[in-house]
Amino acid sequence: MRFRIEVGLRPELPDPEGEAIAARMAALGLPRPDRVRTSRVYTFEDGLSAAEAERIARELLADKVTETWAVGRPLYVSCPKSRSIEVARRPGVMDPASASIREALADMDISAGEIRTSRKYLIEVDLDEERIALLGRKILANESIEEIFVDREPPPRRFQPPIAFRRVEVPMRWLDGEELLSLSRKMCLSLNLEEMRAIRDYFRDAGRE
Fold first, then answer.
1. Which pairs count as long-range contacts for 103-112, CB under 8 Å and 24+ apart, including other chains?
2. How much is the pLDDT for 110?
3. In the prediction, which pLDDT does 160 show?
4. Cα–Cα dist 183/162, whole Å
5. Are strands 36-44 and 67-71 parallel, antiparallel or unpaired?
6. What is the rounded CA–CA span in Å between residue 152 and residue 145?
7. DSSP H helical ranges for 64-128
8. What is the pLDDT of residue 169?
9. Closest Cα partner for 5 from 81, 95, 80, 98?
10. Which of 21-25, 111-115, 129-133 has the lowest mean pLDDT?
11. Do the beta carbons of residue 108 and residue 27 sit within 8 Å?
12. DSSP symbol at 13
């Protein structure tokens, strides 16, 4: 079963990251929000029970002293003018936090399918779509590796098993210039002749293929 776990600071505590975002919005010429609350989102696409999801939130993801969590529902209550912005990694981009969580789950004797992490911002200010896009692009996300979802959750993603590594050995110590460029094109290396020669000479000096 699919579970989303949101983790953030307790509502009565100030949110330094949210305050910093509000200040940067003002510096960018955007309206300063009344409040910004930030949270971390962990999406488990399958493989968990409700009891396991609660245990993971309580024992692994949240700081017992300063943080609170919500399973299957938003963590913070929004007001009519609030905008919710969630930032998640693009498909295929490595997520080190997910790998760390999976290792910790193994120590808890819990197995899970796809695990995704994202960041969620609840911003209490009236912004049109153009200003929302500017906020996401300039402050909240790195669009080369991340996607922005406004007032909605990232869509479900099916679990993709790790791609098996296959070692390929290519003799290249005695290749000439044209053969080196051909090898670069064939292997999709995008290396120029000077770079290919440097690699060839390295292996030649080392006496290796």
1. 104/60, 105/56, 105/60, 108/55, 108/56, 108/59, 108/60, 110/48, 110/52, 110/55, 110/56, 111/47, 112/44, 112/46, 112/47, 112/48
2. 94
3. 58
4. 27
5. unpaired
6. 19
7. 96-107
8. 85
9. 98
10. 111-115
11. no
12. S
What are phi and psi for residue 73, nearest 5 degrees?
-155, 160
Question: What is the rounded CA–CA span in Å between residue 52 and residue 56?
Answer: 6
**Cβ-Cβ contacts under 8 Å for 102 (sequence gap 6 or more):** 112, 115
Is pTM, for the whole model, over 0.70?
yes
pLDDT in tens, 155-189: 887 655 556 778 888 888 889 999 999 999 988 88
- Quote the CA–CA distance of 13 and 63 in Å, as a whole number: 13
pLDDT band of 48, cuts 50, 70, 90: very high
Q: Exposed/middle/buried for 207, CB within 10 Å: 0-12, 13-18, 19+?
A: exposed
Q: Length of the chain, please?
A: 209
Helix (H, G, I), strand (E, B) or coil at 117: strand
- CA angle, corner 39, sides to 9 and 21, nearest 5? 95
Name the token pair of 88: 């998640």
